[in-house]
Amino acid sequence: MTASTPERPATRPAAPGTRPIPTSGRKRIRLTDRRFAALLMLPAALFLAVFVALPLLQFVFNSFFRYNPIAGSPHTFVGFGNYVRAFTSAEFGNSALRTVVYTVMVVTFEFVLGLTVALLFSGLGNRSRIFRTIFLYPLMIAPIVAGLLWRFLLIDNSGIVNQLLYEAHLISSPNQIQWLSDPNIALFSVALPDIWLTTSFISLVLFAGLQNVPGEILEAARIDGARYPTLLFRIILPLLRPVIAVALIVRGVDAARAFDTIVVQTNGGPQNSTNVLSLLVYNTQIANGNPGLASAMGTIYLIAMMGIAIIAVLTIWRPGSDH
Amino acid sequence: MNGLESRRTSTRSILWTALIVLVVLYAFPFVYMLFTSFKTPIETNAIPPTILPSTWTVQNYITALSTQGVPQSFLNSLQTAVISTLISLVLAVPAAYAVTRYRTRLGRVFILLALIMRMVPAIVVGTPLIVIFHNLGLSDTSLALAIAQTTISLPLSIWLMASFFEAVPDELEESARVDGCSRLGALWWVVLPITRGGVAVAAIFAFLASWNDFIFALLLTSVRAVTTPLQIANFQSQFGLDWGTMTSLAVLYSVPVIVLAIVLQRHIVAGLTLGAVKG
């Protein structure tokens, strides 16, 4: 794919030369600004149409058929059969619930931690610069690496996390907490690499937002005798509201799609306790060889996420508008 | 928040302590991975685990790099990321410029749709893409993988570039037009040189999206185009729990981008915070 189309049109006629020019007849058709703009957008639009919209349509189309690509069975049209199966299967409902719990958990932890760090950075001013650099580095690490690394840190009997907790006398034996094999806490444990990787994002965004809070307002409130909690909850947080909203939406959408970190840590186990929707769709498709059902599940998952995302984008971002 | 400067020093030292504790906790996982990669295989699986290696060895690195396919996977990762970054920029720059400079209704619809596409999970487009690339004769190629990864980075690149273009005053472009520049000429000769920093930001993020991608590589590559994240993941399934080799390869793969992050810190922070803070 190269963007061959937009390089030339500014100096060439818009219509490829076939249509005769009726009235003026004197020179080339002038490309209106509106058409020029459309032409500039065309390559990206085509790209997204071919490599996102088309596969998406194919995916939705597949959801109305039953077939097995491995066995090479023919496509059988089943109407909404796969959707009925998805909605009536307990596993789908449970996975959807886990996805919601996972997302809320990740976003909440990241927000509380991220805000704390942003306030510390802001309170300490320029001298915190070196720490901001250190805080940046997890953002560069591949989620797959983070997932494997945390799996290593959390191994039941020889993991360093349990060992350190044991040495700090917080737990009574180094394998007391079965991070990734206890179904009751595994969903939390698999969230740790995600939280570790992207709390920095929330911190940096909130820190940038804090730089824009006018110092005079804070000063005035302080002179009026406001204590720090009042300052935080009554002035700082309300002023940061738009920034917070955007950061949480971006992270929420990503957390709802989490795949890499979970698949390498538990692959959905133990006892399906970490089987979120992205894993369920993947495994139904690849491991169980039922792309029809996987597509139906994926389509429902997508529509739910899109619905939330569109509402959020329209109400908060309003991209491309004239402010 | 200059008010804090005048606060008592005790408050400051509490803040500093809290920050240092947090940062040490935050840095620990990677540092531990770094140490582990220099341990002997026996020490890696020792109970109880050690933090610092008792004997330092580069054996894990030698094993990792001499594993079949690993050196090639690095080249594949780099090649894929470069192709993906280029596609992303070539498509995003004109599109973002059109959206911000001409403010047409179509442009608003376009950027909105692009942002919505950013939310589509990779698993949804990934499997149909297997068939599409097969039909195009691109199965198991870096180009196919790069295209797939660009579906993730392109909407972000468009959004980032649009934010940067918005900061350029329209008059600049208009005066270039008066001087006889074509519309594309004005973008290329006048606007792009000013927004070089923005292009760098978009490039960094497109590069990272590709370099760190796992799921598209898992779905779309099998032999020739395999990237390093797949090789890293393979170490745990193929050889049981070979943490030493796995961590050494993970370190090798992460260090270039961490160095990149430190060198280009200013740009990365700008990119991360731009959209959100302007919102």
From TrEMBL, chain B:
Topological category with respect to the lipid bilayer: Multi-pass membrane protein
A GO term from the CC aspect: plasma membrane
Transmembrane portions of the chain: 14-35, 78-97, 109-131, 143-165, 186-208, 245-264
Domain ABC transmembrane type-1: 74-264
Highest rank taxon of the organism: Bacteria
CDD domains linked to this entry: TM_PBP2 (cd06261)
GO biological process: transmembrane transport
PROSITE patterns tied to this protein: ABC_TM1 (PS50928)
Keywords (A to Z) from UniProt: Cell membrane, Membrane, Transmembrane, Transmembrane helix, Transport
Family according to the record: Belongs to the binding-protein-dependent transport system permease family.
Protein name: Carbohydrate ABC transporter permease
Naturally occurring in which organism (per UniProt): Lacisediminihabitans profunda
Lineage of origin: Bacteria, Bacillati, Actinomycetota, Actinomycetes, Micrococcales
